[in-house]
Write a structure and sequence with these properties.
This protein is mainly beta and about 120 residues long. The protein has one domain: SH3 type barrels. The protein has a 6-stranded antiparallel β-sheet with strand order 4-5-3-2-1-6, covered by helices on one side. The longest helix is centred in the C-terminal third of the chain and has 15 residues. It is globular, with a radius of gyration of 14 Å.
Length: about 120
């Protein structure tokens, strides 16, 4: 795993995109990558993985296109199936982007659809 020291912060909210030391699913290593904050519970944040690598368009992928609000540089993809929880110490000290209100609403709708059959 990366040994990069991270600084903690307590004020991330839904729609913030921040960098996290994201551990691979097989626990073999980790990578600094952007994640979208869903909510906070104490010192833990529930987030979704973001990647700029092309993803096949499916019901579990949300395209995040660059705009003047989020300031991302290239088309990226939010992976609904990649929801995880991180302790605040695994984040950098500042957010790197935020998403628009319309993007937040769309993500809420997709999450409701994704979770409705549980």
């Amino acid at each position: 795993m990366n040994q990069t020291p991270m600084k903690s912060i307590d004020n991330f909210t839904f729609g913030d995109i921040i960098l996290a030391d994201y551990v691979f699913s097989d626990n073999s290593d980790s990578k600094l990558r952007p994640v979208l904050v869903l909510f906070r519970d104490g010192d833990d944040y529930t987030v979704m993985k973001i990647t700029s690598k092309y993803q096949q368009n499916d019901d579990f992928t949300i395209s995040l296109e660059p705009d003047t609000i989020n300031n991302i540089k290239m088309l990226s993809y939010i992976k609904i199936k990649k929801i995880t929880t991180f302790h605040k110490s695994l984040f950098l000290e500042k957010k790197i982007w935020s998403i628009s209100d319309s993007q937040k609403q769309y993500i809420r709708q997709r999450l409701i659809w994704f979770l409705k059959d549980l």
